[in-house]
Specification:
single chain, about 100 residues, alpha+beta, two-stranded antiparallel sheet, 2 helices
Length: about 100
């Protein structure tokens, strides 16, 4: 992170009881336009450390591209199977995690 943005402000807060950490990063005025690039760096580190992309807040659209960083192909296939079984018409949160 510092190699790309030496003046980045990195904030960490979370839930000490279950080990969830929320990461807030600000690299300046261009933070929003660099969101995907910043997330890619952070989620790669999370993958290397064996962490999870999300906990209590779910995956949603922003973390969707990074789901495979903390879930195996088998787990994702099971998620797709459950989604199909419980929502065969695809009307519940369409496209949020499973297309």
């Amino acid at each position: 992170m510092r190699a790309s943005w030496p003046d980045a402000v990195i904030g960490l807060f979370g839930h000490i009881g279950d080990g969830n950490v929320h990461i807030i990063i600000n690299v300046g005025a261009e933070t929003q336009s660099l969101h995907l690039e910043i997330d890619t760096i952070i989620y790669q580190l999370i993958q290397e450390l064996g962490g999870s992309v999300s906990a209590e807040h779910g995956i949603g659209l922003m973390k969707k591209p990074f789901l495979a960083h903390s879930r195996s192909n088998t787990e994702i296939a099971l998620m797709k199977t459950l989604k199909q079984a419980l929502d065969p018409r695809g009307i519940l949160n369409p496209g949020r995690i499973i297309n």
